Amino acid sequence: MALLILVMILLDIAYTLVYQQTDDRNKISYLYHSKDQNYDVVFLGSSRVNNHFVPEIFNKKGYKTFNFGVTRSRLEESALMLKLMIERNYKIKNLILQVDLNINTNDHSEAIRSLFMPYLHQSEIIRDHYRVIPEYNKLLYIPFYRYLHYDARVGFREMYFSLVHKKTNALENDGFNPLKSNSGKMVPADLSKYYPKRNVGYEEIKAICKKNNINLIAITTPMCMSTINRDYFNHIQSVYPEIHRMENAVTEDKYFSTCGHMNKAGAVAFTKVVFDAFFKPKTNP
Fold it and tell me: Per-residue pLDDT tens for 94-124?
């Protein structure tokens, strides 16, 4: 037993040291290792941000921006990312936050939660955020448990790729990851089981923005017109009236990769609509 514990301690130290030296595998590792950044605009949300906002369009207008959208993340993870930005002395003037399908639940994303685990011992912000989850004590106090528990995302394979600095495309294009066009028939998304509700993560984000003088722009993002129960979007403003309705900003199927995700052309078109709605150029085109 003593030997097993020793091995687990050594493995925990080794894995953690590797992750402490790697900042280019995903947006969370990049964020954790960065500090003192100044942004005119930051984008936060799920794949409906990751694949939908093109920072280059803002940058050409004189704005420094970055797309921190993470596929499969929920508002809980977006809130933690914003907390880390504040902890790392980010100066953010405007936060564009996707708030649409992600206020259907207060649940979390296990896949994205796992990406914070290598930094659990080093970051008080991460510990405080996860202090209330049932497995917190196991994750914090049992050596190597967090790497075993989240092996699929931060286990040996990911540790090895981090060790050899195998790059991904996560940080390319200032965080924007474009999708290809759909060559087949558009399959409608079904929102019939979705219903907007008050969201703890969103409430946290609003409070952080207010405290730090960040202009929060919460918006819905487009879905194809064949979506079942588009009335879902009408209910959003009954819960949060301040959310800007942008789900109809792009409607033609040619702009979509799937019913819930735009292709590159759609992302460009949508980003231009959002810029024109809330910003003015700082520089001449």
Answer: 999 999 999 999 999 999 999 999 999 999 9
Bridge partner list, 228: 190
Q: Which run of H or E residues covers position 269?
A: helix 264-278
Secondary structure (DSSP) of 18-77:
HHHT--SSSHHHHHHH--S-EEEEEEESSHHHHTT--HHHHHTTT--EEE---TT--HHH
What's the count of helices (H) and strands (E) in the chain, helices before strands? 14, 6
**Integer Cα distance of 195 and 104 in angstroms:** 5
Sign (positive or negative) of CA dihedral 200, 237, 280, 49: positive
* CA–CA dist 221, 262 (Å, integer): 10
Q: Which of 31, 57, 56 is nearest to 44 (CA)?
A: 31
Gap between the Cα atoms of 126 and 114, Å rounded = 12
SS3 276: helix
Q: Pairing relation of β-strands 91-98 and 215-219?
A: parallel
Q: How many CB atoms lie within 10 A of CB 84?
A: 20
10-57 residue pLDDT tens? 999 999 999 999 888 999 999 999 999 999 999 999 999 999 999 999
Largest CA distance in the chain: 68
Question: The tokens of 75 are what?
Answer: 């508002």
Query: Where are the extended beta strands (E) located within the chain?
Result: 38-44, 65-67, 91-98, 215-219, 256-258, 261-262
* Cβ contact 264:179 at 8 Å: yes
